[in-house]
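Lay summary

Proteins are chains of building blocks that fold into shapes. Our project writes down both the chain and a compact code for its shape. Here are two examples, one after the other.
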Amino acid sequence: MRSRIVRVLLLSLVGQISCVYAADTADKTSKQIDTLVSQYAECCLFSGTVLVSQHDRVIFKKGYGLANREWKIPNAPNVKFRLGSITKQFTSMLVMQQVAKGSIKLDGHLADYLPYYRQDTGSKITISQLLKHTSGIPSYTDDPKFFSDVSRNDYAVEDFVKRFCSGDLQFEPGTKFRYDNSGYFILGAILEHVSGKSYEALLKEDILVPLGMKDSGYDHYADVLPLRAAGYQQELAGVVNAPYLDMSLPYAAGSLYSTVEDLYKWDQALYADKLLPGDLKQKLFTPNLENYGYGWFIRPIPTGEPGGGQIMISHGGGINGFNTLEQRLVGDHDLIVIFNNTPGASLDEMAKGIRAILYKQRPAPVKRSLVHDLGLIVVDRGSSAAVAQYRELKRTNLSGYNFDEGALNQLGSLLLQKGRNSDAIAILTLNVEEYPKSARSYEGLAEAYARDGQKPQAIDNYHKALELDPKNQKATDGLKELEQK
């Protein structure tokens, strides 16, 4: 009897020690994550919320910066952010639920479900191809005039599909991957047609209510929504309010809002079969062309990265004033969710640093973005001074700034948006000099020349982009448009 009591006491003691050790380890990990994200908030305009769970348990959640800059209201884990394209995974779940009910077939054709859609292309495209971005339908957000001419207007679903989601096919359905907001807008229309309910009602009834996601929903600008973050964007000389966007336009491709806490509930539900039978759920996470499933990117983490060898199921989102990222490391049941209401910091780099901490590695040093500092110089002293400053910083402070090609491309895009074509050309020419083997750098410079009316230079740079990357669709489209003119 005594030995049995001793064994019980020893087991109890071991359990208590294990719990204390686990708590201490989680606390240490949490502090390291906080230190890392705080550095992004201090140097890189990160303003948002972060949640990290490890082995299904939340070990970190915190807000940084301001949910509303005018009123100086801080961000917190329960603040609601627009999700952008993370919406697509909810749309794909709703579609698969209708597949389970038999009202939608994955090999059924678009025209089978939307009688008003053009028959010549709608009869070729399957629901599966819409889900995995291989339909060939042009994405309405790729139209360079869409945001300036259309984005503030309200449209009924059918009218929008007919006008903006019914273009001539860019390729034979199923042969290529091209990320396509039009396809997911159409999926929302199909859901409404087969169910007789609005997309918003389906979302609420079939996902949000069953999972207790009370802080998530379809965003309407007019609604008084408690704890909703305002969206901001970086301009050349600072941060401004993001431009208005009518939320009928992103629709099933990007109109949801949520909190990092609610996305944790969503993550946990995806490990169970509460919403969908396991065989159909697996189709969501089966990679197709370019590692895209149905509403998710699925890829093994490269060996040299934190968590190397694990399968990561993820998606990002970007919409006026917001960018978001969700990464699920399904082997270890880890989750990283990052919401930002002042896009500027690289959420991918931030998540990579968090993964390093989770796997007991040292995250890469946080580097300051060039966009803000060089943008101020362009405004004050012109692009020549900004180019000179870039070269000086690279010579004297290589470790303090992020000198990848994305920074100069982003600055060039900002300049083009402001009509400062010559300044954009100067910055993007520098980018080509720095990254002569990058198709993206030549594509950006070609666009700047095209905007400035310098057609021969634009065509020449589009050709160079395609020599480096024959699959560069933006270069292909830009070249085609110029040659037609």
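And here is the second example, written the same way.
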Amino acid sequence: MIGDELQNLKKELLVLLEKEALKKGEFVLSSGKKSSYYLDGRVITLTPEGAFLVASIILELIKGRGVDAVGGPTLGADPIVGAVAALSHIKQIPLKTFIVRKATKEHGTGRQIEGPALPKGSKVILVDDVATTGSSLIEAKKALEKEGIDVKTAVVIVDREEGASRNLADAGLKLESLFTIKDFGL
């Protein structure tokens, strides 16, 4: 993919996010913080166009990094990893994907990491829709590390720039975002 094509995909995604996902008002975030806006990435990642755009951009960003799998914390990562899996198959660069539960399942297989088996030492990248403090990404990293999985990078659609980058760096994760909240004029 040429740089111009990637920039065009990002422009299309930004328009969709501004039009459909950005809400103004009074909201309480999962971190407990109050906010005058809410960016619901799932409104976009659960549409055909949004899923395609996000997966296309992420696949381009991680190309050549020797990544074995892409996944992240449920619920924000769920539609993203599904789209990445499908598009990676179509493009004949298949990637495993996974979902990290908030806690180990009490029944069935008793797993916290759902998806195809990831051998110890697998190199993975975490994904999520929005990062505020980064706590869900840090918890996902901890769960993966317990299984011997190598995770050093997290890619999010939007960084709200409220501490996630610093918190993730402290936890040994580099945060990459497709956009920051400044891209929305906030």
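What can we say about the second shape? The first strand starts at residue 22 and ends at 28.
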